[in-house]
Amino acid sequence: MSIQIPDKAYGTLSLTWTKTPPPREESLKILKYLYEKHGVRHFNGGMIYQVDPAFNNLKLLAEFFKSFDSSDCILSYKGGVDPATYRPSSSPEFLDSEFKAIGEAFEGTDKKPKIIFNIARIDKSTPIEDVAKYLDAKVAKDDYVVGWGLSEVGPETLKKAIANGKVSLLELEFSMLTQDILEMGTLKIASENEIPIICYSPIGRGLLTEKGVSPGFLESLAPTDGRIIGGLERFKPENYEANHKYLKELHDYAHEKKNCTLEQLALGYLSSMTGKENFKGIAKVTKLVPLPGSAKIANIDQLYDSVELTAQELLEVQEIIDSNTVQGARYNARLAPLLHG
């Protein structure tokens, strides 16, 4: 089954997996606002996106989608990580339990979204060839899930998955600050196989924003902020200061060349790359969809007020990117082994 991926997507992590998630009714209003005001038809969630099991991400999204005819929507939903240990698990038994949970959440829903099940992190103890074959077979007979994808997958693993199954979607980090998939060749492989990519953290976890480049940004973050608690390297003072010149260069380009905000440039950079020919060794770039996420309406309005870059502007922005070296890894040393699986 060929699944058409919408141009706009929204990540729901901030609705259920923060220290103080919004109240359920507020989260439902935000989801409805995205659908009605900004025409978002692709929502992304995850099994581990929960602080309170009674108010988990799947329950929230199922309640939202059951409230109207959501058959024009896509729900890409991540599993494959044990919530008790936060370790990847792609055994048939574990994945069976997650498919069952999705089925139970949407049971009795006729006009439901098209659900794509994504493996959130690669389980290196289970051959990806076996996982791909299992997921193909599972999707073929499942009543709710219509496709499957991968997140944080490296180029060699992706090749093996493609050779053994039908990959509908990839969820990968890609932005003006994180170019890994371009540099490692993952984007090239996805493009050659016409696999769409939803690009998470498209504004660099807040660094590619007007606030992120402003004086006092780090000092404004609360000690309980996940970026600080998690020890994300780019939020360490020495790395932030080293990267500030680069952020300011992008900021100035946004304002002087495009008359837009830095976040608009960051999002436009990704969406404008779709379909570009002969780009950095790629014959034709596959569909790229930015995946922003926020629990604040004011921020949401900014994130969907996008700009388009011409082919020349895209090359100019890429030249700025290529001429700078970003200091600090995108995660911390503990999480690094789970990347590019």
Observed structural traits:
341 residues; alpha/beta; TIM Barrel; two-stranded antiparallel ribbon; 40% helix
Give an account of the 3D structure.
This protein has 341 residues and is α/β, with parallel strands linked by helices. The protein has a domain at 1-173: NADP-dependent oxidoreductase domain (TIM Barrel). The chain has 14 helices and twelve strands. It has an eight-stranded parallel sheet with strand order 1-2-3-6-7-8-9-12. A two-stranded antiparallel ribbon has the order 4-5. A hairpin with a 2-residue loop joins strand 10 (277-279) and strand 11 (282-284). The longest helix has 21 residues, at 237-257. The protein is globular. The model has no long low-confidence stretch (mean pLDDT 92). This is Pyridoxal reductase.
Helix amount: 25-40%
Q: How far do the termini sit from each other?
A: 26 Å
Name the assembly state: single chain
Record field, number of beta strands: 12
Strand order of the largest sheet: 1-2-3-6-7-8-9-12
- Return the structural class: alpha/beta
Q: In terms of per-residue confidence, which ranges show pLDDT below 50 for 5 or more consecutive residues?
A: none
What's the pLDDT, averaged over the residues?
92
Sheet-strand content, in percent, reads 5-15%
Order of helices and strands: EHHEHEEEHEHEHEHHEHHHHEEEHH
What is the CATH superfamily classification of the domain at 1-173? Answer: NADP-dependent oxidoreductase domain
- Main sheet attributes: strand count, strand direction, barrel closure: 8 strands, parallel
What is the CATH third-level topology name of the domain at 1-173? TIM Barrel
Please report the number of helical segments. Answer: 14
Specify the CATH class of the domain at 1-173: Alpha Beta
Radius of gyration computed on alpha carbons: 19 Å
- The CATH architecture of the domain at 1-173: Alpha-Beta Barrel
Rough shape?
globular
Organism: [Candida] jaroonii
Protein name: Pyridoxal reductase
